[in-house]
Amino acid sequence: MTVGESEADAMSRLTVLEELKSACAAAQVRETARVIELRAADEDLRNVPMKRRGRGLSAEIGLARKASPRKGAQFLGFARALADEMPHTMRALTSGELTEWRATILVRETAYLTRETREEMDRRICADSSTLDGVSDRALDALAKKHAYELDPHAVVARSARAEKDRRVGVRPAPDLMTTLSALLPMKQGVAVYASLKQHADSIVGADDRTHPQIMADTLVERVTGQSSAEKVPVAVNVVMSERTLLTDSDEAAEIPGFGPIPGHLARQMIADGTADDNETLSTIRRLFARPADGTLVSMDARSRTFPKSLAHFVAMRDRCCRTPYCGAPIAEIDHAHPHRDGGATTGVNGDGACRTHNRAKDADGWRYAVIDAPGGHRIEIQTPTGAVHESVAPPAIGHVPDTVSVVETRLRAMLNAA
């Protein structure tokens, strides 16, 4: 702590740093807009067909900003809007009067409007910087919606009708070995589902030691699966673990692909729960073999009690998520890293687990994928159209111990060979 420094000085620096972050975000907008301009000029010079122009650019922007292609597409849309149609919002971001997130709110809530309406929205909200003083994220969102409806109510209604087509259910990891199950629904349906769960919880709360939120969560499980949350719900879940984790009390982690690491004792319990009351097993075992030196998955057992041998399944289990750096999206497609049309082999080594966006992007002009299968893990070198090079390394198999063949592994192989 500097002599004479006050708490107010520290607070003042926090404000200045936040404003600098906004200014940096504005600079990134200008650079992204410049990339768009240069790429368009280059493609025009090369007479690239219109339907192929801009292909892969969002993925490339995402890589440059160490983010997923989905975020890259958002960065592109954000830059186009601020650079071309929302000068007042751009000025407020540059000066630090708007944070990047609040500028994003304004871009998002005007994306479906005509250029003229968007420009008027920009003027109404950001031309006078005092309008933004003390405004919260929620209040700014509400203000944008209000002006949008006043300026173009028909567009708002049409947007709502289109949005219903995007209804979906998703799941993602949450802290403490929990998951967040979400559903994007039309407003009436979403409110009805929540009200039904709440009404049921209201009617029985106090009957046992569960809280109101716990009753709502348990009721959701019961109504979707048809079984009590305390019962075993027969759903197939892939669990990857080492032989030590399976057969001993090892504290090593296991993994659920797409979810992440879980404690070994929980993985063993999940397998135990896969046994019915008559001792008929509901669990199956598929052997995946890792290279001792680095833990990279290199082959898969030819036998499976439930599923036939599948090379795509092997690649997905090896890569676990999209192989492109900073992406982390679930694998949607298994394809050739070195294109098949250029002689790429259909093998595990040349297999590439990718999200749909990155698998499409690598077919665009200037992208090059080179496979390097060497000690240190399965590697793919990715070169973008601007010449930037990124390296992707497949993660080691869960529970990998370098250069060892344990007694437990020998026992496991003997058991499986006898099965």
TrEMBL record:
| Superkingdom as given in the UniProt entry | Bacteria
* GO molecular function list: endonuclease activity
Keywords of the record? Endonuclease, Hydrolase, Nuclease
**Ranges where the HNH nuclease domain occurs:** 310-360
Query: What InterPro entries does the record point to?
Result: HNH_nuc
Q: Under which name does UniProt file this protein?
A: HNH endonuclease signature motif containing protein
- Organism, scientific name: Gordonia sesuvii
